Amino acid sequence: xxxxxxxxxxxxxxxxxxxxxxxxxxxxxxxxxxxxxxxxxxxxxxxxxxxxxxxxxxxxxxxxxxxxxxxxxxxxxxxxxxxxxxxxxxxxxxxxxxxxxxxxxxxxxxxxxxxxxxxx
Length: 120
Fold this sequence. Notes:
Low-confidence stretches: none
Largest sheet: 2 strands, parallel
Shape: globular
Structural class: mainly alpha
Number of helices: 7
CATH topology: Rossmann fold
Mean pLDDT: 96
Strand order of the largest sheet: 1-2
């Protein structure tokens, strides 16, 4: 199993280095792969804060990766829910993941964050 890091995911999404993007695509097509939740969180942060990409296109880009295989993203149902919340809210992505864990996995979230509590 290959585990992707943030840099590999960014190259694939941004296609700013075609050789690296193609290498990622080749591995994705031939091997079992996993993208950890932490890598997705960092990818969302970098795309939004460094590359100034809006939330909805980030959601679309990561959904594109998820469509490659139902199990490529760790806790994929949680991440997909978090991306939807993130695309249409002001919550940061980690808080959106907590919402995803609550809604999709039934976890009870302990927080003092008022915005997060309202969303839960």
